[in-house]
Prior knowledge:
By secondary structure, chain A is of the alpha+beta class. Helix content of chain A is 27%, strand content 28%.
Amino acid sequence: MPRFLCLQRSLPTDDRGEAPSPAEMQAMYAxxxxxxxxxxxxxxxxxxxxxxxxxVSTGVPDGPFVEVKELVGGYMIVEADDLEAAIAVARxxxxxxxxGSGVEVVEIATS
Amino acid sequence: MSTPGPAPFEHFFRHSYGALVATLxxxxxxxxxxxxxxxxxxxxxxxxxxxxxSGAPDNPAGWLFRVAQxxxxxxxxxxxxxxxxxxxxxxxxxxxxxxxxxxAGEIGxxxxxxxxxxxxxxxxxxxxxxxxxxxxxxFDVREIAQRLSIGEGHVxxxxxxxxxxxxxxxxxxxxxxxxxxxxxxxVRAVLYVLFTEGRLSxxxxxxxxxxxxxxxxxxxxxxxxxxxxxxxxxxALVALMHLHRARMPARLDGDGGLLLLDEQDRSxxxxxxxxxxxxxxxxSAEGERFTRYHAEASIAAEHCLAPSLAETRWARIVEAYxxxxxxxxxxxxxxNRALALAEWRGPAAxxxxxxxxxxxxxxxxxxxxxxxxxHRRCGHHEAAARxxxxxxxxxxxxxIRAALVRRLGGR
Lengths: 111, 411
């Protein structure tokens, strides 16, 4: 079954929306638990948050480069029949919680 | 892959917010309260983003504390670097990190310390109440507005006034011990108002009301178990909260309608709360002072102990209301004494007690409703109809109006 890399990104927007309150977070946590159970078979690697990094290149980099973590907050790998199915999994993931967060879903090509 | 841990306990996020704010404010100073609140919020968001995938850590509170503290340090460094104020902000000294997460007892200390700070005598009670709901209970502006039935603008205004005061206190978070003692009545008064908001609010639904009462009970119990606040008066306050809380579920019928005392199914009263209330009431009986909380707790205990309305020891309730009137004069207490007297000695005795008593300014619907009922039972049809009309007209919600119609007759 195809695998997909899901990258949590901060979206370039000023409208960060309203952050959830702690009570709302409690309710969302329960929802994420359900999500995880529902898609347990699809979540082959829950991934994690990304820290600092640096771009390595053979040539002389043009820089300056934005640190990777400014753009990408975390990743996970899901298995699904196709991109649409992977998107359906990603849509419910906790990476979307932060206002101004998006998740990029890309197929990991094997051939 | 680690297995995600069990879901955090009920109110984990709100209560962790309160604990983080209290501890970080003590460690870094109240002048940073806004940054502290942001850091707490951010740590909780981080938990929400990662725990469902990676599993909750073994020590969730310690995890949250470390994340929040790091975020706060980053924030403060950025602020001071930008303003070139490292020295003035006191951040050029020995670095405040790394610090260990607080121990459980320390969190209790911190929460109480924050409670005492919120109940600053220079702040009006309604401001202290909003501050406590935000900083200690972890409600946001919209949730506070909803729970207190006030506009969000009012909540903002009170919060910013409160935060201003906290910033002015700054690093000197600890009021001196003698001031702690002097502030204790104000702290109890704020907790009492918090509880009463939950118990008597007519405009919010039952779940929100019990939630407010449970918050008041949590903080008051903390106070009563701590050397700073452990005294008979605080014990009486905890007792009265439990004894009222016990009966709250029985006040609603299946459709959310309001049930009067004689209509309530007493088997729905919560035994655990009654038992706890009676234990605290016994603990409150020490010492010389009999306070309004003692009087109110005794009244609530009498209701809880009565097997039925008819078997209620009304004489004791009348006596306790009389004490309450002396300790905290209010026409509403006189009204309640009259109602208890009417159960004991008949409606005419109740009415006679109210003869010449001025109703409170902007008398609540309960005043007219009680008079309508007493007159009805005395056979004074004209007066009963007059008060009944006034009561129905000023009934604040349809549920209350329905209960009044059942009791007072008519449609």
